[in-house]
UniProtKB/TrEMBL annotation:
Record's protein name: ZIP family zinc transporter
Transmembrane segments: 6-24, 31-49, 61-82, 156-178, 184-206, 218-234
Keyword Transmembrane helix set for record: yes
Keyword terms of this UniProt record: Membrane, Transmembrane, Transmembrane helix
Species for this entry: Microbacterium galbinum
Lineage of source species: Bacteria, Bacillati, Actinomycetota, Actinomycetes, Micrococcales
Keyword flag Membrane: yes
């Protein structure tokens, strides 16, 4: 159980650290867009080489596809709720949508991490670095957008602290559930995270990066993908 707590905190900490970094300085829009594009590329690699490929090998296509569909629908519904709330306040839901995406990705992803730890699977340093590469830009971008939208600094920190704590707790929950779950559950959880991330990337993160970084977005995305893919293959 101690290992689950440790790795849960390590995997979730970048979510809160990114929010802190967003407050330490005013990020120029172009730099922020580049960071978001880099993070989007890292998340694409995570979907391809960790969530999809490993899920397919572990449990086969059926639970994976079901998980993808549920994750996509869950994120879509949550994002539309945020859009409606933002419209009433005449604001922008972009930062909130990134936070929802991090939550819907982080919970199932760290559930799988906890189950793997309970099963005796080792955690590689490459995997930890890959999580940092994908989570950090996501929280920086979201926190910066929320601050620009007028949210108080204390509320932004509280929001991302809550996301990080919930994701870390999911690792411990996965460790406890390991004895009553099988490969189909782990595969569906991976698919859920992949589905939520794909919709978030297309609807929110990539357009947000493009609006800020302009022609640099593609380069940043490829660099993020290449680094995260290399780390995933190394692990």
């Amino acid at each position: 159980m101690g290992a689950a707590v440790l790795w849960g905190v390590v995997a979730a900490a970048p979510l809160f650290i990114g929010a802190v970094l967003a407050m330490l300085r005013k990020w120029p829009p172009r730099w922020l867009g580049f960071v978001l594009g880099f993070g989007a590329g890292a998340l694409m690699a995570s979907i391809a080489f960790e969530l999809w490929e490993e899920g397919l090998d572990r449990g086969g296509p059926f639970p994976l596809v079901i998980g993808v569909a549920l994750g996509a629908i869950s994120y879509y519904v949550a994002a539309r709720i945020l859009d409606a709330r933002a419209a009433k306040k005449k604001g922008d839901a972009g930062g909130g949508q990134l936070a929802v995406g991090a939550l819907l990705d982080g919970i199932p992803e760290q559930l799988v991490l906890g189950i793997g730890l309970a099963s005796g699977e080792p955690v590689s340093i490459a995997l930890v670095v890959a999580i940092l590469v994908s989570n950090l830009p996501e929280s920086i971008g979201s926190a910066a957008d929320l601050l620009d939208g007028g949210m108080k600094r204390s509320r932004v920190l509280l929001l991302w602290a809550g996301v990080a704590v919930i994701c870390a707790a999911a690792t411990v929950a996965g460790f406890g559930l390991a004895s009553i779950t099988g490969d189909a559950f782990r595969t569906a959880a991976s698919g859920f995270a992949a589905g939520a991330l794909l919709v978030m990337l297309v609807d929110s993160m990539v357009p947000e990066a493009q609006s800020k970084a302009k022609e640099s977005t593609g380069l940043a995305t490829v660099l993020g993908f290449a680094l995260a893919a290399g780390l995933a293959l190394a692990s």
